[in-house]
Amino acid sequence: MTERDKRGEGDEPQLELPGLASARGTARAVKKQAAKQTKGPKPVDPAETLPVARVLVDVPLAHLDRPFDYLVPRKLDADVVPGARVKVRFAGQDVDGFVLERVAESDHPGRLAPLRRAVSAEPVLSPAVGRLSKLVAARYAGTRSDVLRLAVPPRHATTEKQESAPAPAPGCGDTEAAERAWQPYGGGLVDALATGGTPRVVWTALPGADWPTLLAHAAAATLTSGRGSLLCVPDHRDVARVDAALTAVLGAGRHAVLTADAGPAERYRAFLAVSRGAVQVVLGTRAAAFAPVHRLGLVALWDDGDDLYAEPRAPYPHTREVLLTRAQEEGTAAVVGGFARTVEGEYLVRTGWAADLAAPRTVVRATAPQVAVTGATDRELERDPGARTARLPRTAYDAIRTGLEHGPVLLQTPRQGYAASLACDRCRTPARCRTCQGPLHLPRPAEPPTCRWCGTPEPQWACGECGNRGLRAPVLGERRTAEELGRAFPRVPVRTSGGDHVLAQVDAKPSLVVATPGAEPVAEGGYACVVLLDTWLMLSRPDLRTAEESLRRWLNAAALARPGQQDGRVVVVGDPADPALQALVRWDPSGFAGREMAERQSAHLPPASRLATLTGAEDDLEAATAALTLPEGAELLGPVPADDDQLRLVVRVPRAAGPALSRALVELQGVRDAKKLPALRVQIDPVALE
Description:
By secondary structure, the protein is α/β, with parallel strands linked by helices.
């Protein structure tokens, strides 16, 4: 019998047709997928109690700025606590989120997705800061996820595993020393803080006042009542001064320093010490405004007009507004202080939200240094015809020479660098780059003119108007000023402070210190003389706050002089008739702030009104304007050209309509995000409005 016979007719091998195997594989895949859909996801064993977690997902889209409910697996029950970080599945990918609360059931009608994992059981988002983030996002027409990026620093796992050493038990505190320090301002503040009160004041410090020690005493008095304090200052130099004052008043280890430039590990370590309640006194820059201080009793802000308090990241909140919101919501005391007074600070006093805390005028006149403006009298003009036109008139030169006999002399100049701008020596036409038409400047002596925009050197520059090759410098920087002073006073050391090289302190020996605004070092015992140069340049800036900001910078520099009419002297080179200079001579920052506020009210400008700027492409602005539902009384200004070929539109509303404007802008951003349209840059009450 053949093999064919053994197999039989029915056992003939079957030949596969082309494509039949792939078709069978496709059919099997379809059946497998259908089986998966029938079975559904693998069931999750939920937590026994409060199995639903409300999570704020880190998605910076306005239409998704709300909590979402997730199921808490039993295995994650212990780690998923309110304020903890978690990972969730959102829009097909794993994203970060914060647990806001745990609840028994959800309003969501469908099936809840489970949490992917618990990143950490550390509750880094306190309930108070969670509520604050919602209020700040609403105030600035932003999203809570953007605010929380500013409020909670990135996690550092190694640091988180370490314990936070509790601060030493506070003593009774030297309340008498605190009361003596604050006595020139009428007293009462220290006693109110020590007994659990919540005073709110706008404080105008006396010239030469040791304000770091005064803030430290205020924090110590608050700590006596068992409450914490949050102190914010503009920059790291101020942080160092207040840090030393807190250590001297409170003792070592009783406060934490929170700054963005401290490094990931150090910043997170300080944040955890505050979050865990190991310390109750916090000092920092704008990064500390959201610090989760336990039993917060005092928020304090020094020099609130400094532009460093304006956050450069969305939603662009201002530290002053964040702290005032905390004071309102958490029922704390508030101190807004400085040598100058902002219009916003004056508004707080005029509306009754805060009280005016200032020394009597008799004390101010006895403490303030002698302030004189060159060319203020006819006699001085007769002696020196260039008193109002020369950069360094004879009066200023004589004051420098006399001051050097008694100690260091400070000169404030508004511009950094060597020669900040150049012009033709013959026709005064501004010198421009032949490549990009940018302005030329001299970065250093013995270097050719260089473009400030593209960096192209122009060693063979010639004026396009008259062909002249000579250059003059109408605006000099601090390095060129120091060079000229070094020639005038060859035996006196000259030091510069500005840009990347900022001095923190100088000794009491005779020397010349040339500094840019905000970079003035503190002199041991105070400066014998302070000279303010090029005041016209500061007053020529096209900005809403030009006069206010100029006076603030002049007062901050003049306050470094030795107090008293006999010891310290301030010489100002400028126009004696200017209102800001007159306020400096009288040392009357509150009066000038009141005048500025009256002008702002008549012009419908902040703080009497609310402003919002929308920046984007022309087509996007037109579409946004058509879709924006504005509150009653709103005005549209512009659009006008902005940076990077974009336009800027200004929306102005009465102050009472500010919340309605913010809501309208949030709705607009939500609609545009949902439609995947290009985002607009939205800023509420920007610090600078040129």
